[in-house]
Amino acid sequence: MSDDALDRIAAALERMSPAPLEAPDFSQAGAFVWHVEPDRLAAVVDVNRVDLTLLVGVDRSRDTLLDNTLRFARGFGANNALLWGARGMGKSSLVKAIHAAVHTDHPDLKLVELQREDLPSVGRLLNLLRGAPYRFVLFCDDLSFSHDDQHYKSLKAVLDGGIEGRPENVVFYATSNRRHLMPRDMIENERSSAINPSEAVEEKVSLSDRFGLWLGFHPCSQDEYLAMIDGYCAAHNVAVDADRLRAEAIEWQATRGARSGRVAWQFFVDLAGRHGVSLI
């Protein structure tokens, strides 16, 4: 057999069984994003986040998650956390803001974002993080499952760890609009059509029970909505007459048909733009 043929065979075998992925230089950034095909961790130098002090109306969740993250960063016991509830109320913003606050004094704490659709690869990611001399908050935003979705089985590798156990240097934070990570109509449908209704959905519903912390986020009041906008104005030095600001903010949320932290920020972006203030 020619050398050229042997080279082609060797290349084909390497594609079928690639060399183990090498860990990146975790010292180059505080946050990373996990990608697949090919597997890699991409450093994120400038993370899209807001300051922790600007998150209004989530005091209890903020304090609980901050305490949990601090304990983890210090090498003590900490729980996986599920942040669930109303859209636009700062669930993902809180995770990123808390990481930034803790990372200041604990630079070895890294944030790694994992997309929901990449959950089947989580075992490979955990193997990569397991031996690193850092501590990792593994973060999955907008986590939920449909009736034919098998990704939840991969999530158990993070929450339960299988025979190897979850790496001691990894904790998992997820956000979701659903407390049980699956639609209520799906739960009721499986219960009504199953021979044993209680067992039909137990595996999926109990997935959320594997999170040690459940932090609920609820729609904000008008006072909280206005306080968010006041905080943004103060932080970015946008001076507006108080009565005018209140009237415009209320009109904005009325046209959107909703009040939330996201709506407050969208109003402020518009307000800052009209006043010639750059948010970069």
Outline the structure in words.
- The chain has helices at 3-16, 59-73, 91-105, 122-130, 151-159, 184-193, 197-200, 202-205, 222-235, 242-256, 261-274; strands spanning 31-35, 40-44, 81-85, 109-113, 135-140, 170-176, 213-217.
- By secondary structure, the protein is α/β, with parallel strands linked by helices.
- It folds into two domains: 26-217, Rossmann fold (3-Layer(aba) Sandwich); 222-274.
- The chain has a seven-stranded mixed β-sheet.
- It starts with a helix and ends in a 6-residue tail after the last helix.
CATH superfamily of the largest domain: P-loop containing nucleotide triphosphate hydrolases
Q: Shape, please?
A: globular
Separation of the first and last Cα atoms: 62 Å
SSE order in H/E notation?
HEEHEHEHEHEHHHEHHH
Residue share in helix: 40-55%
Portion in beta strands: 5-15%
Largest sheet: 7 strands, mixed
Q: In terms of structural class, how would the helical and strand content be classed? A: alpha/beta
User: Multimeric state of these chains?
Assistant: single chain
CATH topology of the largest domain: the name is Rossmann fold
Which residue ranges are poorly predicted, with pLDDT under 50 across at least 5 consecutive positions? none
**Total beta strands:** 7
Strand arrangement, major sheet = 2-1-4-5-6-3-7
CATH architecture of the largest domain: 3-Layer(aba) Sandwich
Number of helices: 11
CATH secondary-structure class of the largest domain: Alpha Beta
Computed CA radius of gyration, to the nearest angstrom: 22 Å
Residue-averaged pLDDT: 84
**What is the total number of structural domains?**
2
